[in-house]
Amino acid sequence: MPTQTPSVSLIRATSYERDTLRDSLETLLEPLGGITAFVKPGNRVLLKPNLLTGARPGKECTTRPELVYAVAQMVIEAGGKPFLGDSPAFGSARGVAVASGYLPVLEELKLPVVEFHGHRYQTISEEFNHLLLSKEAMEADVTINLPKVKSHVQLVLTLGVKNLFGCVPGKMKAWWHMEAGKDANRFAEMLVETARTIDPDLTIVDGIIGHEGNGPSGGEPRALGILGASSNVFALDRAMIDILNVSPEQVPTVATSKRLGLVGELNEIYFPNLHPGLLKMNNWRLPDKFIPIDFGMPRVIKSTFKHLYIKFIKEPISAYKA
Q1: At what angle do helices 18-29 and 65-77 cross, to 10 degrees?
Q2: Distance between CA atoms of 148 and 226, rounded to whole angstroms?
Q3: What element of type H or E holds 195?
Q4: Which residues of 58-90 are buried (b: 16+ CB within 10 A; e: fewer)?
Q5: Secondary structure letter of residue 284 according to DSSP
Q6: What angle do CA 179, 182, 186 make, to 5 degrees?
Q7: What are the angstrom distances between the C-alpha of 205 and each of 39, 187, 260, 317?
Q8: Contacts 24+ apart (CB under 8 A), 106-109
Q9: For residues 315 and 322, what is the distance between their CA atoms, to the nearest angstrom?
Q10: What pTM was computed for the model?
Q11: Are strands 81-86 and 44-49 parallel, antiparallel or unpaired?
């Protein structure tokens, strides 16, 4: 069981306007010690947003660039050196970031974007020791996880834990869908062990506008008006599903986190700002129907070639368009 009571900060937030969002983030992080509790001068700080796809701009499939801008600015003011990284399903991190409206942020803050490269690291569970994880995430001084609140056709909801699957580089994710996806519980355990090994210093969830329905990309935007933060990604996910009125047993990653003793009930979490009970949504839309986690070999091969085509052919060609 966790050795200390986790704290989860939850606030109402309705705007991505820069000054308003900055004020919201300062209020959100204040009971956790502020950004300086996590970032020290000289730290290399990985910002890990959800850069799933650049194919549906405006549909809130990715973490908002405004949130990344505000967090990066706070990191810089604390003396840290932020950089952006992710491993999108298709294409490069920079390509998806640009397609998702990040270019002004990258240019204004001179924010580097890194591509993730895999390396094997010791995991707590020997079952997943052959899992490749991003060197860039594992070797950063600080990792700030920036997920988006979304419904998910395979995992019901994708929040902080699932967002860290983006630290499995390249098309290894598709191969893990094939290898572990035959058993939903085993796949969820793989996601939880990935999150436990990455061990983000801070998770800030973008719930100002979420993505409901047939996510992670086929749904629609939905105003939630919420920001959440915690140094404990498992506790934050547990709080968020309560807000969405989804039981822990319905969400494989949360159910697995509970089974492994990584998170308990809500009364075992400290909420210095708002309690989830004050933020409940009664009609958040889950997927219309669910699809298997398992990727068969033909799908893995097709997915791999699509990723390589976009990353090495389509994106470089588009760079030369007038």
Answers
A1: 60
A2: 11
A3: helix 184-198
A4: eebbbbbbbbbbbbbbbbbebebbbbbbbbbbb
A5: P
A6: 80
A7: 18, 22, 23, 34
A8: 108/69, 109/69, 109/72, 109/73, 109/76, 109/82
A9: 14
A10: 0.89
A11: parallel
Taking each helix axis from N to C end, the angle separating 172-180 and 184-198, rounded to the nearest 10 degrees, works out to 140
Q: Which two tokens stand for residue 176?
A: 């893990």
- Show pLDDT as tens, one digit a residue, over the chain (322 residues): 345 899 999 999 999 999 999 999 999 999 999 999 999 999 999 999 999 877 677 899 999 999 999 999 999 999 999 999 998 877 889 999 999 999 999 999 999 999 888 876 766 667 776 678 889 999 999 999 999 999 999 999 999 999 999 998 766 665 565 555 567 788 899 899 999 999 999 999 999 999 999 999 999 999 999 999 999 999 999 999 999 999 999 999 999 999 999 999 999 999 999 999 999 998 999 999 988 765 444 444 455 555 444 455 544 545 434 3
Sign of CA dihedral 192, 194, 198, 203: negative
Cβ neighbours of 36 (radius 10 Å): 15
DSSP class per residue in 202-262 = EEEEEEEEEEESSTTTSSEEEEEEEEEEES-HHHHHHHHHHHTT--GGGSHHHHHHHHTTS
Distance between CA atoms of residues 238 and 256, nearest Å: 11
Return the H-helix or E-strand segment holding 72: helix 65-77
Cβ atoms of 94 and 113 within 8 Å: the answer is yes
